[in-house]
Amino acid sequence: MAKRILTLNQISVLGLERFPRDTYEIASEFAHPDAILLRSHKLQATDIPDTVLGIARAGAGVNNIPVDECTRRGIPVFNTPGANANAVKELVAAGLLLGSRGIIEGNDYVDTLAGMDDKAELNRTLEAQKKQFKGSELYGKRLGVVGLGAIGSLVAEMALTLGMEVMGYDPALSVDAAWRLPSEVRKADTLSALFSRCDYISLHLPVLDTTRNLINAELFGVMPRHACLLNFARQEIIDEAALVEALDKKQLRKYIADFPTPALIGRKDVILTPHIGASTDEAEDNCAVMAVEQLRDFLENGNIRNAVNFPTLQLERVGGCRLAVTNTNVPKILGSVLALLADQNINVIDMLNKSRDEVAYNLIDIDTTPPDELLQHMRQLDGVTSVRLIGDCS
Length: 394
Ligand SMILES: NC(=O)c1ccc[n+]([C@@H]2O[C@H](COP(=O)([O-])OP(=O)(O)OC[C@H]3O[C@@H](n4cnc5c(N)ncnc54)[C@H](O)[C@@H]3O)[C@@H](O)[C@H]2O)c1
Ligand SMILES: O=C(O)CC[C@@H](O)C(=O)O
Hints:
Helix content: 25-40%
InterPro entries: ACT-like_dom_sf (IPR045865), ACT_dom (IPR002912), D-isomer_2_OHA_DH_cat_dom (IPR006139), D-isomer_DH_CS1 (IPR029752), D-isomer_DH_NAD-bd (IPR006140), NAD(P)-bd_dom_sf (IPR036291)
Distance between the termini: 17 Å
GO molecular function: NAD binding; phosphoglycerate dehydrogenase activity
Number of domains: 3
Order of helices and strands: EHEEEHEHHHEHEHEHEHEHEEHEHEEHE
Strand content: 15-25%
Bound molecules: nicotinamide-adenine-dinucleotide, (2R)-2-hydroxypentanedioic acid
Largest sheet: 7 strands, parallel
Number of helices: 13
Structural class: alpha/beta
Radius of gyration: 26 Å
Protein name: D-3-phosphoglycerate dehydrogenase
CATH class of the largest domain: Alpha Beta
Family: Belongs to the D-isomer specific 2-hydroxyacid dehydrogenase family.
Strand order of the largest sheet: 8-7-6-9-10-11-12
Function: Catalyzes the reversible oxidation of 3-phospho-D-glycerate to 3-phosphonooxypyruvate, the first step of the phosphorylated L-serine biosynthesis pathway. Also catalyzes the reversible oxidation of 2-hydroxyglutarate to 2-oxoglutarate.
């Protein structure tokens, strides 16, 4: 039977074409989908049917998905790290330029001159008024980057090429990300040190329980008054009341962000774009292709790459059929699963088991198709969250 993929946002065709039409059905409405593919759609736990095996986010942030509930139900949530990083980096470059030069104000002013048909008079007026729109250069200024992952590291590199100094803060920096980082990036030990020393600050961290409202009144209080804050990460990272108060008190010069809210729209000291950080042809294609490939590998082989709540695990297919078993990460459960197979004289050909936090995940290749009763029995074992048979041994 064809696998059913429920799409909850518009997904690039280049990605969707990677689902073979003879083995997959794709639609934006399905009562019993095998998997969900989405972008920013806010997914409620109650909207995830029991048939769903995996969820793929074509993008980086997964705060629109109830990840804890998925983990509880044994559903891996995939994302596409780095696939849209260049698109965001380029918008941040634009944000830095909009924050340093009177581009928007100048453009708005020029629009007011529509209808002035005398070219000489137009030029005289422009030359007389342009001093209002003077800016300052980025060269030599200091950029603080909060979060030095896929996007933050590219932003740091881009700012260095503009001649800026770069300071970074990331207490959870992975070893791989540290290797990617240009050596010129100076480390800030605290957020407060970074906020107090930078002319521009750009946020590139995920929204988590620990980062919600992280940027608060205390940090706005130490910022230089000429500083500019860029937020192309998520609005929830900023304490909005504190931001509005800081703008009112002129504790920061400008806020440039991808997340409009009623309190911010229309302010002269705020520049807002409608969440278009990843809205390029290239990023949409990259994210969709990566999400689809990861989802297919999971549905067809049980392999897991780039899940935010499951361990990474890939086992080459060597024939036979495969059991994908998820359980809580406590002793003896795997032993009970294997004992059930041994009781039925089912031989294990190959096996891989890994854990991440409270989740343990096992791929077990066997040489005989197990009877349905055995799978039911396995599902009822204490601590087993899900059991899936992939393929057929016959
Ligand atoms: N505007 C957009 O359209 C758009 C597009 C892509 C991503 N994003 C947002 O940007 C975020 C980052 O994306 P990415 O691809 O760089 O992710 P990433 O996972 O590669 O990098 C995130 C970095 O943040 C760091 N971090 C975690 N907690 C931190 C903290 N308390 N302080 C400082 N750093 C911390 C992590 O260690 C990691 O290095 C995403 O989670 C998403 O919310 C927005
Ligand atoms: O899908 C999008 O347009 C936004 C994606 C972005 O917010 C992300 O977290 O990757």
